[in-house]
Amino acid sequence: MKREYVLKKLKKRQGKIKTSTDAAKIPISIRLDGSDLAALKTEADRLGIPYQTFVGSVLHRFVHGDIVDRKSPDLAKLLKIG
Predict the structure, then answer these.
(1) Rounded-to-integer distance, Cα 58 and Cα 43, Å
(2) Tell me, what's the pLDDT at 64?
(3) How far is CA 67 from the centre of its chain?
(4) Residue 52 has what pLDDT?
(5) What residue ranges of the chain have pLDDT lower than 70?
(6) Cβ-defined contacts of 46-50 (< 8 Å, 24+)
(7) How far apart are CA 64 and CA 54, in angstroms?
(8) Residue 56: what pLDDT?
(9) Closest alpha carbon to 41 in 20, 56, 55, 22
(10) Minimal CA–CA distance to 71: which of 61, 63, 82?
(11) Which residue in 5, 9, 19, 57 has a CA-CA distance of 20 to 30 Å to 79?
């Protein structure tokens, strides 16, 4: 990390400023098993992204149906398993 930064070199971000609460990131606090967190951090490191970004991506994909729990009873009914 640098000791000093030259802030005059910074450029203004292009586009409109996000003001929608839907677009805003909301800080939360959760408790995870240490082994689960370690696995998430390992996978994020393998992908070359920060682990919090990876966790947010996994949650986003699950909420939007891109990731499905294979043990879900609803999925078993849809596939006529069991």
Answers:
(1) 11
(2) 86
(3) 13
(4) 94
(5) 1-2, 18-23, 75-79, 81-82
(6) none
(7) 15
(8) 93
(9) 55
(10) 82
(11) 57
Residue type, 72: S
- pTM score above 0.70: no
pLDDT confidence of residue 69: 76
29: nearest Cα among 48, 52, 63, 60 = 52
- 3-state helix/strand/coil string of 4-71: CCCHHHCCCCCCCCCCCCCCCCCCCCCCCCHHHHHHHHHHHHHHCCCHHHHHHHHHHHHHCCCCCCCC
